[in-house]
Amino acid sequence: MHRVLRRQGAVLGTSSKPQRSQTSRSFASFTPLTEKDCTSITPPYAVLQQRLKRISEILNHRPLTLAEKILYSHIHNPETCANEGIVRGHTYLQLSPERVAMQDASAQMALLQFMSADLPTCAVPTSIHCDHLIQAIDGAESDLERSIVSNKEVFDFLESAARKYGIEFWRPGSGIIHQIVLENYAAPGMLMLGTDSHTPNAGGLGMLAIGVGGADAVDAMTGTPWELKAPLITGVHLTGKLNGWTTTKDLILHLAGKLTVKGGTGRILEYFGPGVESESCTGLATIANMGAEVGATTSTFPYTDGMRAYLHATGRGPVARAADEAQASGFLRADAGAEYDEVIDVNLSELEPSINGPFTPDLATPLSHFAKVVQENGWKDEISAGLIGSCTNSSYEDMTRAVDIARQAKAAGLSTKIPFLCTPGSEQIRATMERDHLTDALEEVGAVVLANACGPCIGQWKRGTESTDENAILTSFNRNFRSRNDGNRNTMNFLASPTVVTAMAFSGKLSFDPQRDSLKTPDGQMFKFTPPKGEELPASGFTYGRLEYYPSPSPQPQPDTQITISPTSQRLQLLEPFKSPFDDNSRSELPRMTVLMRVRGKCTTDHISAAGPWLKYKGHLQNISENLLITAVNDEGGEVNVAQDYDQETGKSTTDTIPRIAQRFKARGEPWALVVDENYGEGSAREHAALQPRFYGCLMIVARSFARIHETNLKKQGILPLWFADKADYARVGAGDTIETVGLEALLKGESSARIGLKVTPREGEAFEILTNHTMSKDQIKWLQAGSALNKIKNDSKAASMQGTL
């Protein structure tokens, strides 16, 4: 690859052998799919193309990439671009997404914010998916039943809100949000938002699906134009064809190693070339899913035969036929001569399987070299658990490949040497697997099939051990930060394709290379796997499975539905609006702030707002705020979850946990700021990582650099994100120092190019000034002035209402 710059049973996961699950015996239901009413999910291609025609005129008919076509055809009012045009990487676009999807953990806060807007229904079709709150313990059926009981209050809240506002509600057990969106809602040329960082998964169907925080979703749900800086476009030119053990997962693992976790920031990855046509729709979705791991805004592909086949197979023939017409006019592919800001060339025929990790998804090693890496690092040559599935790799094609490996092993008399866990992506996948005896094939070699949910991938995994020893797991997941999966910061998660994970589960050793190595069978013979084959789509079609998991399509709002939140609830809490620091109209700069701490190194949204056991508090801001930055490293001392309060009351220690120091600041009404390192806030889209510091009184975060979604989330909640103009200044500002903004007044008055300086007064020594950069748009400045974007929406709504009564 080269880059060319151009213009423009048992407790799960313990060493004991899991017992075969009996889950499938109670779930049997094989209702075949029929063609659906696709009215609400078919993009309005004629309207989009008409809008794009006007944009093309404004841009002097220059050739457009596919990503530009989809994005610009969703501009709310093309005439706003008439004077200055559109400059990639510079122009802020006001967009009208066609759909919103929310998972159950993030939907709670999004709905609490939407409710405060006092609207009777959502402005665009919206869905809620119950997938994050189901903990994996001992198998699908019991895990699902237990989670429904333990999360009843939250599920009841989500379901009642869905009824009241006309939202489609996918019940616990229905599957993972991204697989369901791909199966039911995604359509070529669509623009949608999702409250999860892996929303781009739907890009496998030739659309733009963008992960956002809940406040961004509320924009679309209230009919407010959604703002996005026009991304740069990186073209990924694919030639050749994947072969042998190599899958689309290996392509994106390889690219992650080349681009790093921030190489896609502010960019859309647009794949093109003959190599795209050779891959399945669900394979392309895997690539798009993990584009989030390089920081990309989203990923997309031109409309292919594989997409058409997948639409028909999932009951969306009307969408396919409409897309065929749009394709004939050239809407669903890049124009000839379209220019990318960068082009990466990849010959698929030359790729080999990759293993990425530990602790970061961009540390890529070719499988053939991995045994050497294990030895060089002194890691134990053993795997403690193997896990396949998750939103990244749980398609029918993925599962049939894994089953091919399992059947080869069974024929040789082998069974897995380690706990081996499988997560179907949806009820549709689970039921089709059961009908086609794929589940049997996996369970017969030792697999435990988990509930159709996120489970271990997001930390919802009770392994049954409190050990903090170093150990290695091998997964087909997309993310592998410290402590993410089981709460043990010493668990090394290595990412690989489902086929590699499955094959290595029969060895139990990190050094095993199924491409080259053999295993000894019970009768003493040597056995070697052959490259697995999968089925892109089931020969007998998909089946629904349990229909009670599915929502009523396009439900009508039921405004009389009561949504009750107990004032003593520990799971849900009504939101109080954040106070604006400019409420008295006399202030032109932020108030003087104390630096709470300087955060060292990688600080993902998992570090800022941990998941796992904390997921149960996603709807209760006060409770979940108690996990603020608890796994972050303090650069002044190198300790985890340690901060100082140099203005403490007499008798109190200067040192405490980060949340408790933040609570002290809040209690005495002292505004504060954070100083942070590179790519701050990478990872999940969780807006709690912005809500929590704001709840405790944070008004500003100064970074060497930010991840895209998190920077936007901070702006939405009224926190000013600034970038060090000189990254070396990061080390000059420490805990207990005070900071004052200099020049913010000009920005507030509408001078968007104004530079903001910071006057830093150290605890000891002379004051000094440093220069910063910002990415605030005119609308985002108004959010800051109002105290949050939601405050701005409410203020505008109130003003419009008052105007209407005059």
Automatic annotation (TrEMBL):
EC number(s) per entry: 4.2.1.-
Annotated SUPFAM superfamilies: Aconitase iron-sulfur domain, LeuD/IlvD-like
Cofactor note: Binds 1 [4Fe-4S] cluster per subunit.
First-listed, main subcellular location of the protein, grouped into a coarse class: mitochondrion
Gene3D superfamilies: Aconitase, Domain 2, Aconitase, domain 3, Aconitase, domain 4
GO BP, one annotated term: tricarboxylic acid cycle
Subcellular localization(s) per the UniProt record: Mitochondrion
Domain Aconitase A/isopropylmalate dehydratase small subunit swivel: 593-726
Pfam family, one: Aconitase_C
GO cellular component, one term: cytosol
PANTHER family: ACONITATE HYDRATASE B (PTHR43160), HOMOCITRATE DEHYDRATASE, MITOCHONDRIAL (PTHR43160:SF2)
Protein name as it appears in the record: Aconitate hydratase, mitochondrial
Species assigned in the record: Sistotremastrum niveocremeum HHB9708
Taxonomic placement: Eukaryota, Fungi, Dikarya, Basidiomycota, Agaricomycotina
